[in-house]
Design goal:
363 residues, alpha+beta, five-stranded antiparallel sheet, 6 helices
Length: 363
């Protein structure tokens, strides 16, 4: 019986152990399956969390970009607005300035027109006081006058007078050019008429002495050496009956071409006016004329003109050569050639001074 009970015990025990093992395995399998399922769910949750985090991050980026875009747009809009306002303000200022400039321009044009009208009228007065060519034609056989003012009015002038069977010719260059020179020319023309016609001084050197005294009295009564107003002048007195030429010259020489040779009557090296040194009496030079002589008087404007291929002065030597080249031609031809030569020489450059050149043919 003991043995039987032992066998039954073992059977029951193995059965119980086997059942417990089965239950245990089932429990372990269930736990494993549950753990697997839970891990799977956790992985799914982790994936979803990552996705949500990514979406949240993207949303944040989108929000930041949107905010930045709004800020930039607002900044651009403000900049454009400010630029627009500045542009409006600048446009208003420019319009105002333009209006003011137009007003000033109109005012200046009106004043300029008044000044130019006055200067043109002064030109008429000056030309009226210059000896007319008809007067020259009345008393001379053949001549030409080349007169080219730098401005509308001129500081160069010529003056002629027939008196007691003598013909006086003054070729002068006053201090300055333009309006100041024109004032001086009118003053000196007045002095010439006064000294010769009213004071009856007829010798060229004494005429220049008296005019110098008149100029100093009128323009420099206090003896101020800084005031050097006056003129350079050659004053010729032709006596065609005796064939004599009396000359007084201040800085400007007189040229005579005879038989294709140029003879120079040299001037006194001082002006008709205030002078740095003690004024000396002007010299009287007497030149014996011959038929066929051509007498040339001139100011420095022609020789001093800049031009040519190197932009240099024309100079007296070139003028001398040109006169020797053309002196056998008719007077009107000489004038045309000299005028053309001057224009070609200064082409492209400004005329720097008044130009005056007079020629008288002796018959």
């Amino acid at each position: 019986k003991a043995y039987q009970y032992y066998v039954l015990y073992k059977q029951y025990r193995d059965s119980v152990l086997n059942d417990e093992g089965i239950e245990k395995r089932k429990e372990l399998e269930m736990n494993f399956t549950f753990e697997k399922e839970r891990e799977k769910q956790q992985l799914e949750e982790d994936k979803k969390e990552v996705i949500r985090a990514e979406e949240k991050k993207r949303s944040l980026i989108y929000i930041i970009i949107s905010i930045c875009g709004i800020v930039v747009s607002v900044f651009i809009a403000l900049t454009i607005y400010r630029s627009f306002k500045r542009s409006q303000k600048a446009h208003a200022i420019i319009s105002k300035q333009k209006t003011e400039i137009e007003k000033q321009k109109h005012f200046v044009e009106e004043k300029n027109k008044e000044v130019m009208d006055s200067i043109h009228y002064a030109k008429r007065i000056q030309r009226a006081l210059l000896t007319s060519e008809n007067y020259f034609k009345k008393h001379l056989s053949d001549f030409f006058i080349l007169y080219k003012p730098k401005d509308i009015v001129s500081g160069d002038f010529y003056w002629a007078l027939s008196l007691n069977n003598k013909f006086y010719l003054a070729t002068a260059d006053c201090t300055g050019h333009g309006v100041p020179g024109a004032f001086m020319s009118l003053l000196n023309i007045s002095f010439l008429n006064e000294v010769i016609i009213e004071k009856k001084i007829t010798r060229p050197d004494l005429i220049l002495d008296e005019i110098r005294n008149d100029i100093i009295k009128a323009l420099n009564p206090e003896g101020n050496e800084a005031a050097k107003d006056g003129m350079d002048c050659s004053l010729c007195c032709f006596d065609f009956e005796k064939m004599d030429l009396q000359i007084a010259a201040a800085n400007n020489p007189v040229w005579v071409i005879r038989n294709n040779t140029l003879l120079e009557i040299k001037p006194d090296k001082m002006p008709v006016g205030m002078y740095a040194d003690d004024p000396k009496p002007f010299s009287l030079q007497i030149f014996k004329l011959e038929k066929g002589d051509t007498v040339y008087t001139f100011t420095d404007g022609y020789a001093d003109q800049f031009g040519g291929p190197k932009g240099k002065k024309f100079k007296y030597k070139q003028l001398e050569n040109k006169l020797l080249e053309i002196n056998q031609k008719m007077m009107f031809e000489q004038k045309e050639i000299l005028a053309h030569t001057f224009d070609v020489w200064k082409e492209g450059l400004e005329q720097i001074d008044d130009v005056l050149l007079i020629a008288i043919k002796v018959f």
